[in-house]
Amino acid sequence: MTSSQKLFSLQTIGLIVFVLIVILVSALGATYREQSQDIYSATVVRVLDLVQEGGIYYQNVEAKIDDSGKLISLRIQVRDLNLEEINSGDNIYVRDAQTSISDIYSFAGHRRSNILFWVSIVFFAVMSVILGKEGFKYIVPTMLTFLLVFSGILEALFFISNLYVIALLILGLLAFISMLIQVRNVRIAITVAISQMITLFLILLINVMLFKTTFMTELFYTNVTLISSQVRLIEFWNLINVAVLFIAFGATINTTLDVAQSIVKKKRTYPKTSTINLIREGTVHNQLAVGRVVNSFFFVFLGVTLSSIVLSSGSGLPFWEDPYVVQGVLWFMGASLAALLVGPITALITAISLSQGESPIQLALREGKN
């Protein structure tokens, strides 16, 4: 076995162990994640009469608390008779308002996680089969982040230290792991991770200024749930800015790899080529890569803000004054700008990195593309 094969084997084993650890920790986090002591999961076992009081409809039901099997009576408000039909077997949450006399239960919300859990498993299973081994490598960041988010670990990490530092470190690690799986070269993986973090930091600075000048704090005051849960404005402000880091990461993770691969190919084909030529090669390749994805960004963020665009006329202001529409536009521009910036940054760092050493570059590309 050659040294490169041994290195690849060690990298593969290390990556497999890392993924297994993340999956295990995420599963444990999801299992032991704390739930409010007065909230219980329940199942509707019997639908009773529908009553109207003061122009508001209420559906009377009997439900069984999942943990204790206790039968309780509930009244669930129905805002739309066609879209919010309550059926036997529906999974819900109930709140226990304990009194000195007895427990009084009220409807706390629909339980969607059971459906989401199985849909997610089927989704990723089908995707893994269709994408195959090589395609699956590209969605490793999605898989790991998905597990971290829904297990509650990502939320816990955000409270360890500075929110922005933690987010940058997480995304930098995801970039490194993803690139190492795809290219099997530590130098290129480090280069791509550094390029990603520099780009994300620049996007963060730009976004903070734009959010501040466009008064995005209004998003906080229009969210009744946040205000009622006593969330502080500064917490919301930090999170909406950190959200842009994740959006920009998704916009650049594959582009930066394409740029790095194009430069490595150029270096392998023309070992004596100059650093300037390598940078030029990466920049040209980035133009093509970005041109292919900007349309995707636009229609994704258009879909996210479409309801606000169409339904904001009731405020009397043009739809482009709606804070949710402005946020969507800034998201689109931030993602596109990140994709534009990451190319030159990756090209510069990769070209300089390859020019420093004389050892041959070992880059594992997909079959048929060598």
UniProtKB/TrEMBL annotation:
TM annotation in the entry: 12-32, 115-131, 138-157, 163-181, 188-211, 236-257, 297-317, 329-354
Keyword Transmembrane in annotation: yes
Coiled-coil ranges (or none): none
InterPro entries the UniProt entry points to: YibE_F (IPR012507)
Matching Pfam families: YibE_F (PF07907)
Annotated keywords: Membrane, Transmembrane, Transmembrane helix
Transmembrane helix recorded as keyword: yes
Protein name as annotated: YibE/F family protein
Naturally occurring in which organism (per UniProt): Candidatus Dojkabacteria bacterium
